[in-house]
Amino acid sequence: MKLLQFNISKLICKQSFFGVLALMLFAVNTTQGQAIFSNPITGTNPNTANPYTAGQTVSPNITVSGIGRGSGITGTNTNNRYNASGWNSGAFSNTKYFEFTLTPSAGYLIKFASFEYTAQASGTGPTSFSFRSSLDGYGTNIGAANANGTTISLAAAAYQNVTAPITFRLYAWGASAAGGTFSINDFTFNGMVTTACTQPTVTSFLPTSAPVNALIKINGNGFMNGSGTSAVLFNGVPATSFTVISNTLIEAVVPVGSTTGAVSITTNNCTGTSPVFTVLRSTCTMLYSDIFISELYDADRGDGGI
Question: How confident is the model at residue 300 (pLDDT cuts 50, 70, 90)?
């Protein structure tokens, strides 16, 4: 019997509305945090407590200090705000501040987004302000604090995946009189508290290269850790679809628009990156419902095709 060979002249291409829709959904910005530690600061003379914790709201799996003050300032009676005097140093002083400490529970981490506060200073109160953190020994300003309050971004990498206690301090100075006051009226730390994660690992692909719309198998480990896998990206482009088969196997469809590069997998809010996966180029633009054979010919030279 003679060996028969087959030529397949067309490659199946599939462009789906649902694939485009998935890309659009992944483009939505989902980095906005939620309140993880806040206090509207109400009541009679909150300054009498150092730190002040009444009325605060705290996310599960973290502990907090409340709002406290440094040894260089003195609590001053005023209702519905945390008030102090003694800000009358002519320059920055490392003892004149309000402070907040947040500590994630074992096995958890904090991803900060921002710090929001409202405040007020008396006519003889401080005129200069600085918001700093314990991460660098309170050596660098974060954002631009002021007397009235603002939102300070904590989106920098230094404030992500925090697994140890972290303290923030709002320093003030430059008051024209010892009795000049400055108070925090309310505050909120925004972000997310989540389980500390172990990056998923990718060991191999089957096949090792494929065109867009092909279904591939991704072998590795940790795909079902914690809350599970939430994203599969081919060189930055979200997979058209994916299914977690087991802790060691994911099946994913190579998305339109992807190029050769690493495949990244986000599991339990932790992202692991694979070796390079090769995306094959194709000029096929039409949708074919079936593979068809354009020519069948004999392996021996001289025999014509069918």
Answer: low
Which residue's structure tokens are 């590795």? 220
Distance, CA of 215 to CA of 211 (rounded, Å): 9
Which of 195, 227, 242 terminates a domain? The answer is: 195
* pLDDT attached to residue 3: 38
Please tell me which residue, 298 or 97, carries the higher pLDDT value: 97
CA–CA gap between residue 70 and residue 93 (Å, rounded): 10
25 and 61 fall within a common domain: no
Q: What's the domain count of the chain?
A: 2
Burial class (CB within 10 angstroms; exposed 0-12, middle 13-18, buried 19+) of 246: exposed
In this structure, are 245 and 268 located in the same domain? yes
* Residue-number span of the structural domain to which 140 is assigned: 34-195
Distance from C-alpha of 38 to C-alpha of 19, rounded to nearest angstrom: 40
3-state DSSP call for residue 47?
A: helix
Average pLDDT over residues 122-140: 98
Confidence band, pLDDT 50/70/90 cuts, at residue 243: very high
